[in-house]
Amino acid sequence: MGWSRKDLLGLRQLSAEEIKLVLDTAVPMKEIIGRKIKKTPTLRGRSMATLFYENSTRTRTSFELAAKFLSADTVGLSASSSSVMKGESLRDTGLTLDAMGVDVVVIRHPASGAAEFLAGCIPAAVINAGDGTHEHPTQALLDMFTIREKKGTLAGLKVAIVGDILHSRVARSNIWGLTKMGAEVRVTGPATLMPPDIEQMGARVYTDTDAALEGVDVVNVLRIQLERQQQGLFPSLREYSKLFGINQRRLELTAPDAIVIHPGPINRGVEIDAQVAYGSRSLITRQVTNGVAVRMAILYLLTGGETNAIPH
Ligand code: CP
To answer: Any idea where the Aspartate/ornithine carbamoyltransferase carbamoyl-P binding domain is (predicted)?
Structure first.
C-alpha cells in the first residue's frame, strides 16, 4: 500500500498498515544516517518549516536533520521569537509560511487539536510534533520502530507504560499505535494521573506498579512533568520515585530480555534510576537515533515518495 494522507496528526486515525508502512520506510532511512556522507537528493527542492510554540531538543532537531539528510530546505520558527509575540494567530502564521512555499509544517503547540486546526487552514502537509495532552505521533512511531528493531515484532509483546498517563501525549499515541499493532499495553502510575477513560483506548490499568511490570517485554517510562508538582497531583518527588520509579529491583520483575525506553528528557533519579537509564537494557540513545530515521520516513511519505523508490 502507498501513503495517501496529506497530514500526520495522530495515530488514532492511522491503520496498522499505515503504521507498518512508516516503520518499513524508516529501515532504509536508518541505513542512510549510518553512512559517512549522510545526504541523498530525495527531497531536493522541497521545504520544511518547524513551528514550535513549546520547547524541544529531540523532536525539533531530529526533524531538521531528517530534512537536511534528504536535501530539503529547512526553516525554524519559535513562537517566542516570531510575530506570534505580536499577537499573530496560528492560522495567519500558517498561511504566512504556506505563502512562502513551504511544503511541510511541523508544529508543536500547547493546545490539543492545534495541529488538526492548522492542517485545515493550509494546503501544506502538517505534522503534529506534540499538541497539548493529545498526541505525539512521531514519538510513538520511533518508540515502535525501536521496539520492533530489537524484538523483531510488536504483535504479542507486553508493554508497560509507567508514569503521568493523564498529561502524556506520548502515552496516548503509544497506546493507539501499540494496540493496533497487536501488543498488550498496561498502564500504571499515580491514581491522580490516570485518565478515567484510558481502558476504552485498549490499555489495561494497574494500580500496583510491580504487578504491571511482571513479565513485560518493554517498559516505557514517562517523564514526570515537574511543572505539575505544585498542583498536588503527587505528594513529592521522593515518594513518586519510591512508588513508581523504575529501578534495578523493579527491572528484575520484567522478562529477562526486557528493554527500557523513555521519550526524554529524563528526570534522573525520579522516574528512572541512572543505573537503569544508562544500563544494558536501556535503548534511550537508540531511540534518539531512530527518531531521525522515522522522521525522514514521514517527510518522505508526506511529500509523495513512492516506497519502491526509497534511496539505497
Ligand atoms: N521526546 C520529546 O518530544 O523530546 P523533546 O521535547 O526534546 O522534543
So the answer is: 6-149
Task: Judge if the beta carbon of residue 61 lies within 6 A of ligand 1.
Answer: no
* Burial of 225 from C-beta contacts in 10 A (0-12 / 13-18 / 19+): middle
Q: Which atom of ligand 1 is nearest to the CA of 62?
A: 8
- Same domain for 160 and 259, yes or no, is yes
pLDDT (tens digit per residue) in 55-77: 999 999 999 999 999 999 999 99
Q: Nearest Cα to 170, choosing from 150, 192, 189?
A: 189
Q: Which residue has the cell 511543572?
A: 227
Q: Which three cell numbers stand for residue 190?
A: 499515580
With a threshold of 0.90, does the pTM exceed it? Answer: yes
Mutate to test the pocket of ligand 1, among 51, 57, 220 (most ligand atoms within 8 A of CB): 57
Which cell numbers hold the place of 97? 509560511
247 lines ligand 1 (CB under 6 A): no
Report if residue 309 sits inside a domain: no
172 among the known binding-site residues? no
Cα–Cα distance measured from residue 79 to residue 70, given in angstroms and rounded to the nearest whole number = 26
CB 181 within 8 A of CB 175: no
